[in-house]
TrEMBL record, chain B:
GO terms for molecular function: ATP binding; ATP hydrolysis activity. One of its GO terms (cellular component) is plasma membrane. This is Ribose ABC transporter ATP-binding protein. PROSITE patterns: ABC_TRANSPORTER_1, ABC_TRANSPORTER_2. It comes from Roseivivax isoporae LMG 25204. It is found in: Cell membrane. Residues 8-244, 242-498 form the ABC transporter domain.
Automatic annotation (TrEMBL), chain C:
It is found in: Cell membrane. One of its GO terms (molecular function) is transmembrane transporter activity. This is Ribose ABC transporter. InterPro entries: ABC_transp_permease (IPR001851). The keyword Membrane applies. It comes from Roseivivax isoporae LMG 25204. Keywords: Cell membrane, Membrane, Transmembrane, Transmembrane helix. One of its GO terms (cellular component) is plasma membrane.
């Protein structure tokens, strides 16, 4: 009987381990510092995680489809720079769709390489990380990009605005999370993403157009990046060329923390959101404790490895690896 | 019985996994200079027993004795050190390394500072290769060798120790007849040196040709040992499955409908050439031939996975172009592929999602998947095919082979195809499910489906087919009607003899 | 049933014991061909486009190029071995930075200063030990937890960077030792100190990979891990050793670079892992493991550096370098796949 409960507990931990860890983490920090769960603080954390979160939503699709996307950080810099530059030349109403079109083109390019030409996604997106960074620098001429008339534009609403007292970035993140969660779990496309990531050959043998599905995951990822770039540009109304640098790995960390398998076929939007929030709250909690921002790097390191380790340990029912 | 001390003896080996007693008191005795067949249906416990012997698994009970001394083996390396060597069915070689490096993998001769002693390595290897009469040398890259020669490398690896017992696991699965002869010569040599050989195979003809005794496992239990010279195929089969298997042609006959699929002059590079055949509604067309004869490749072409270099395909009389599985499905062609786990199923997905995967778009209501419609389809085909699963949420990877295969079949039946192609329908499936699937195929024909069955098992082809196309080296040598076919003529046709010589 | 044997004569002839080797253009050699192409291109294009008085193939220019290849190059050589194993190490940039901090900071410690110039070898040892220790942590985690090396080192890339910041906050760590600078700027037989380190490392690792049991086992493990395990190769300790090796080399790279520059910013070494992986992949090493060569990686390193310098030389903006390298990486991958295709007979999955 004891063995049975232990097994059940193990299963719960394996399936919802990340949720349990999140709950424990929140309680401990809340006890240590009640300000941690203050509504203003919580909203602040979600708001500052929103850009990373929006990118993570798109990457979740790519990862469940069995691929990686290391180019999202550099693509986000591109979107941000482009929309800021076009804002002053075309005006915000035209700049936004133009930026979306350009970003989607980049996504389509990656999607063709990985989906239709079946090139290794790690290398392709690694190459694109560098290539898009080059494009961004060429676009900006290496200089920072700023909106000339910061006071006179409505462009700031995506990053700074409020609707009914709720910050717009939170609204965008929440809305996108709900929509994409439905897409992933309730539509034929979502089902196909799981099938292609779970066993691409079997999916093909079942008439699922694998190349097109992979292509669409990258389009979706680029779409999310474009939204993130819009939010970033709108929040700061000016930007460096390297604003998204390194974010690809933070995004991946959030997705992995949420339990998506790098082999594909597993993961959910909900869990990715949890992963994003954990990263956000760790950062915030450590700051509230008076620690510097970089302490979170070390903590994140430990948490990522523990999370993945416990996940696979539960699957193989032993803690230590069987590697000799 | 005691003409020599056994080189290897197993006593009451028990191995349990959670919920399963995989081995239940198995005894086995291997004498020096004997070829000992180990037989049993898939799932009878052969592979578990071999893993125990090879040190990969530890038995829960029982003893292993080598030269009558009890031993404990905790790793493949330890087993090898004690003289028990494996020739695996799936070759375990490193393609990019040389023959010599593969043979001495893990035991490369060293000089000072961890350097490899290449001179000694190549000399020793060439000496071993010489005894095997092969025509490649120690420096050849393994990836450049044919499968048969790669197997020779595996055998050479076994000869680096002086083996007491060598275990061959389905060694002829992908060999040509000429290559088999070479392999059997090597086995004879080993035998002459007093090595005991355990030979695992499903191929009766080989068993009766080269083995001295046959031991049979069923459901994890030892069922007895027979002297090959004194027994018959029937007796062995009966021991394996606990009853005689009735593989006579099913007597049911029914009227055939119109031609559902017609293929004319289809070719695909050097994979197969100038293939023509047709299937009528209500008919089962069998494809029989050796592995590599081009049968699976034809199926893959019909399903849009290969581009033919010449020829035409007609479905219901209309010429069609099938460029992808999506096209094939639109034209009413379904394929149950040969590699169930690799090609047939997404093992991590649940039963229902696997079954409805090809029609998930058609079953959706508006932009969303329709749970109700999908569950209804799953329930319908679960009942019809008698799929044993706790429910549609069950992950397919947890089902037995037979039930997995039924999910794949159900996936295509629920699409109501014109033509259903079934490639190796019973590979890796237990006997009970096997005859169920055979009956199912006959039923489908009776309901008016045009069915193509591809199989390497002659009894299976003979049992289910109305007509049989015999393939050899990329060509259809001859198409037999079920009434006229004999085992001999079929074997001749798939061995490459010209049709006119057969007659 | 025995009658089947009488038909063996009809079996298809399989006389050739050795199959034709597959097409391998993007292998050893090909990358050096690319290097030569770059040299020709930039020399010719430079005649028309460059404002510089010196030729691109100027000896000093080439020597400088080799020197500048060294920091990424030494790391890429180590990355080659880890990738032949079928693993990857994303934490090398952070390891590089932390080792550099230890190198420079340790020379300011009172007891070290008391040692005079003898502090230099000691500081080197501290730095190299730091890198090796960080590699040890990666390797141990990969071995003991069985978590994929990509995830483990993705984590430690963040974690080690955190340690870098914790050491000295966001301030740069500086210490200039003129003896050290002289040493780093010295030239022997025309080559700079850094170049000697790069070539020496390449030579040693080439010997290790082609001549030693450890090197051959590295290929075997990446090629067919299960076979290696069954043959008794201890995969865990093997991985551990290689992660320690790449940690050591990241530190060596830092030693070579910061002996001269004398100042570390906490963000130094960022994206080095990407540059190193790019060089390794350009050199033809397979991402899945089991195939690759040290000499080809050296070619990949030189090719990248040539591209950076060459584009600058012909007057292209430095910004285009990132674009060109990214696209070349993808092009190499594409070419490699096209050349290894089986043509129209291939299964379309």
């Amino acid at each position: 009987m004891a063995a049975l409960t232990r097994e059940a507990a193990g299963r719960l931990l394996a399936r919802q381990g990340i949720l349990v860890a999140f709950a424990v983490f929140m309680v401990v920090f809340a006890l240590a510092n009640p300000r941690f769960i203050d509504i203003g603080n919580v909203a602040g954390v979600i708001r500052s995680s929103a850009i990373l979160g929006v990118m993570a939503l798109g990457v979740t699709f790519v990862v469940i489809g069995g691929n990686l996307d290391l180019s999202v950080g550099s693509m986000m810099s591109f979107s941000t720079i482009v929309v800021l530059d076009l804002h002053d030349t075309l005006g915000p109403a035209l700049a936004i769709p133009a930026m979306f079109a350009l970003t989607l083109c980049l996504g389509a390019f990656i999607g063709i390489l990985v989906g239709y030409l079946k090139l290794n996604s790690l290398i392709v997106t690694l190459g694109m990380l560098s290539a898009i960074h080059g494009l961004t620098l060429m676009w900006s001429g290496g200089k920072n990009m700023d909106i000339a008339d910061k006071a006179g534009t409505w462009f700031g609403i995506f990053g700074r605005g409020d609707v009914l007292g709720i910050p717009v970035p939170i609204l965008i993140f929440a809305l996108l999370a709900v929509v994409l969660s439905v897409v992933l779990s309730r539509t034929p496309f979502g089902r196909k993403v799981y099938a292609v990531g779970g066993n691409g050959t079997a999916a093909t043998f079942s008439g699922v157009p694998r190349a097109r599905v992979v292509f669409l995951t990258y389009i979706l990822s680029a779409f999310c990046v474009a939204i993130a770039g819009l939010m970033q540009a709108s929040r700061s109304l000016g930007s460096q060329n390297t604003v998204g640098q390194g974010m690809e790995l933070e995004v991946l960390a959030a997705v992995i923390l949420g339990g998506a398998s790098l082999l594909g076929g597993a993961g959910t939007i909900f869990k990715t959101v949890i992963g994003v929030l954990i990263l956000g709250f760790i950062q915030n909690g450590l700051l509230l404790m008076g620690l510097e921002f970089y302490v979170q790097y070390v903590v994140t390191w430990v948490i990522i490895i523990l999370a993945v380790w416990l996940d696979i340990a539960a699957k193989r029912s032993r803690l230590w690896s069987p590697i000799a | 019985m005691t003409d020599a001390t056994p080189v290897l003896r197993l006593e009451g080996i028990v191995k349990t996994f959670p919920g399963v007693r995989a081995l239940d008191g198995v005894d086995l005795e291997l004498r020096p200079g004997e070829v000992h067949a180990l037989m049993g249906e898939n799932g009878a416990g052969k592979s578990t027993l071999m893993k125990v012997l090879g040190g990969i698994l530890q038995p829960n009970e029982g003893r292993i004795l080598i030269d009558e001394a009890p031993v404990v083996m905790t790793s493949p390396l330890e087993a090898k050190g004690k003289g028990v060597v494996f020739i695996h069915q799936e070759l375990s070689l490193a393609d990019e390394l040389s023959v010599a490096e593969n043979i001495f993998l893990g035991e490369l001769p060293r000089k000072r500072f961890g350097r490899v002693d290449w001179t000694r390595l190549y000399a020793t290897t060439d000496a071993i290769l010489k005894t095997l009469n092969v025509r490649f040398d120690a420096r050849t890259r393994v990836g450049d060798l044919s499968i048969a020669n790669q197997q020779m490398v595996e055998i050479a690896r076994a000869l680096t120790v002086s083996p007491r017992a060598v275990i061959f696991d389905e060694p002829t699965a992908s060999l040509t007849d000429a290559e088999k002869v070479v392999l059997f010569d090597v086995i004879e040599d080993l035998k002459a040196k007093g090595v005991g050989i355990i030979y695992i195979s499903h191929r009766m003809e080989e068993i009766f040709r080269i083995t001295d005794r046959i031991s049979v496992l069923r459901d994890g239990q030892y069922r007895g040992t027979l002297r090959t010279a004194e027994t018959t195929e029937d007796e062995v089969t009966q021991l394996m499955i606990g009853r005689s298997l009735d593989l006579s042609r099913s007597p049911v006959r029914h009227a055939l409908g119109k031609v559902a699929l017609e293929v004319r002059g289809l070719s695909c590079g050097h994979l197969y050439r100038d293939v023509s055949f047709s299937v009528r509604e209500g008919e089962v067309l069998g494809f029989y031939g050796l592995v590599g004869a081009g049968r699976t490749e034809i199926a893959e072409t019909l399903f849009g996975l290969r581009t033919p270099s010449a020829g035409s395909i007609r479905v219901n009389g209309d010429e069609v172009r099938i460029g992808s599985p999506v096209d094939a499905i639109r034209h009413g062609i379904g394929l149950v592929p040969e590699d169930r786990k690799g090609q047939g199923l997404v093992l991590g997905m649940n039963c229902r999602d696997n079954m409805t995967l090809p029609q998930v778009d058609d079953l959706s209501t508006g932009p969303f998947v329709s749970d109700g419609a999908e569950v209804a389809i799953f329930d319908q085909y679960r009942d019809r095919l008698d799929i044993r699963t706790p429910g549609w949420r069950q992950i397919v990877g947890n089902l037995s082979g037979g039930n997995q295969q039924k999910i794949v079949i159900g996936k295509w039946l629920s699409m109501r195809p014109q033509v259903l192609i079934v490639d190796e329908p019973t590979r890796g499936i237990d006997v009970g499910s096997k005859s169920e699937i055979h009956n199912l195929i006959r039923d489908l024909a009776a309901q008016g489906y045009a069915v193509i069955v591809i199989s390497s098992e002659m009894p299976e082809v003979l049992h289910v087919s109305d007509r049989i196309a015999a393939m050899y080296s990329g060509r259809i040598m001859r198409t037999f009607a079920a009434e006229e076919v004999t085992e001999d003529s079929l074997i001749q046709a798939i061995s490459g003899l010209e049709p006119e010589k057969v007659a | 049933m025995a009658q089947t044997t009488t038909f063996t004569a009809a079996a298809p002839p399989d006389d050739a014991p050795v199959r034709k080797p597959r097409s391998q253009l993007v292998v050893q050699g090909a990358i050096w061909g690319f290097v030569v192409l770059e040299l020709i291109f930039f020399s010719v294009a430079g005649r028309f486009l460059s404002n510089s008085d010196t030729a691109f193939l100027d000896l000093d220019n080439m020597l400088l190029l080799l020197k500048q290849s060294a920091p990424i190059g030494i790391i890429a050589l180590g990355m080659t071995i880890v990738m032949i194993n079928g693993n990857i190490d994303l934490s090398v940039g952070a390891t590089f930075a932390l080792s550099a901090i230890v190198l420079l900071d340790s020379m300011t410690w009172p007891f070290m200063q008391a040692l005079g110039d003898w502090a230099i070898p000691l500081a080197w040892i501290f730095a190299l030990a730091t890198g090796t220790a960080l590699g040890f942590v990666n390797g141990l985690v990969v071995w003991k937890t069985g978590v994929d090396a990509f995830i483990v080192t993705l984590g430690s890339m963040l974690g080690y960077r955190g340690l870098v910041f914790m050491y000295n906050g966001e301030q740069p760590t500086s210490h200039l030792n003129w003896t050290l600078v002289d040493f780093a700027e010295a030239q022997f037989l025309g080559l700079h100190t850094a170049t000697w380190f790069l070539l020496g490392t390449a030579l040693v690792l080439w010997l290790v990979m082609t001549r030693t049991v450890h090197g051959r086992n590295a290929y075997a493990i990446g090629n067919n891990r299960e076979a290696a395990v069954n043959a008794g190769i201890r995969v865990g300790p093997h991985f551990l050793l290689n992660f320690m090796l790449i940690g050591f080399l990241a530190a060596l790279s830092a030693v070579v670079f910061y002996s001269e520059s004398g100042s570390v910013n906490p963000n130094d070494g960022m994206l080095y892992e990407l540059w190193a992986i790019t060089a390794v992949v350009l050199g033809g090493t397979k991402l899945a493991g089991g195939y690759g060569s040290i000499i080809s990686t050296l070619g990949g390193v030189v090719a990248i550096q040539l591209l950076r310098k060459g584009l600058g030389y012909i007057g292209a903006d430095t910004e285009t370098v990132n674009l060109v390298i990214g696209l070349i990486l993808i092009a190499v991958l594409f070419l490699d796949r096209q050349l290894n295709r089986k043509g129209s007979e291939e299964l379309k999955t």
